[in-house]
Amino acid sequence: MTANDSKINLPSGSMVDGLTISTSDVDSGVAINRIAIGANASATVDNTAVIGDSSVAQVFAGNGNVLAGVVTGAAIPTITPVYVGQMFIDTTNTKVYIATGTAGSSDWSVLF
Hints:
By secondary structure, this protein is mainly β. It has strands at 14-16, 19-21, 34-37, 48-51, 59-60, 66-67, 70-73, 87-90, 95-99, 108-110. The chain has 2 domains: 1-55, no CATH class; 66-110, no CATH class.
């Protein structure tokens, strides 16, 4: 590839350094900037990147920093946060929480 190439065409299920790249549900004929990586990943909205399915809880940048993740629910969070800094949005009571620990559901603090 050259610096001007804009895409790599690989068949669905191709392995690149242990990484599965899935092209299912990505219509390259009309799609714009759709990326789906991992088992059961589906990118059906333009300008999105999907990594894995709902079982993926954390995504790390190359430097090891956790990229922000948001969980939504219809009440105060009763789940245990996966990592410090994880966000939870209560869509019923319009409140936003941030995880300050990972020991239990009491580790959520209300932001607003």
